[in-house]
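Co-fold these.
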Amino acid sequence: EAGVAQSPRYKIIEKRQSVAFWCNPISGHATLYWYQQILGQGPKLLIQFQNNGVVDDSQLPKDRFSAERLKGVDSTLKIQPAKLEDSAVYLCASSFHLREGDHEQFFGPGTRLTVL
Amino acid sequence: TQLLEQSPQFLSIQEGENLTVYCNSSSVFSSLQWYRQEPGEGPVLLVTVVTGGEVKKLKRLTFQFGDARKDSSLHITAAQPGDTGLYLCAGVGTYKYIFGTGTRLKVLA
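Predicted complex below.
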């Protein structure tokens, strides 16, 4: 079974530039998550989709971050414009069910973003 | 805001030693998960504990969920260099995961 795919793996941009990350979840997984992980810290949930609907985006900085999952499969996360503090690893994860106590998240390898 | 504090934050030990990592919160979770993350990779699930007081063993790793379902511990017996990594607990609530602050473990040969 193929895992969660993410691209690019690395990205270096100047502050105020725009960047987009792509994620393809495991086939059949209805729930997709985007996390931001600052170096050495635990992942922080940015947005959670159930199929193509948003379940939780309470921690997404909506003035600069946007995400979509138009066909309920793959997803893109965009930052526009980027700030220095956006330097982090952006992890995508998917899970089969959205049901309490019954979900294993499968993570992609992440995209390491450096903002100069 | 729900928070999961892990301690210690960093741990460097010799091969063969035992260690315990703690995950504490003031919130109750329906279940709690432990993940291990290696450099350049995403976290990988080790275990899910669901019932208060539950203990699960995975080879040399022992996981315990607190009676009140607010805290958990991970105990590693006879640590090996292959155990090196970032250990993350994650509280599972209503359609939401809250990840802990992480414990970075280094096991020296």
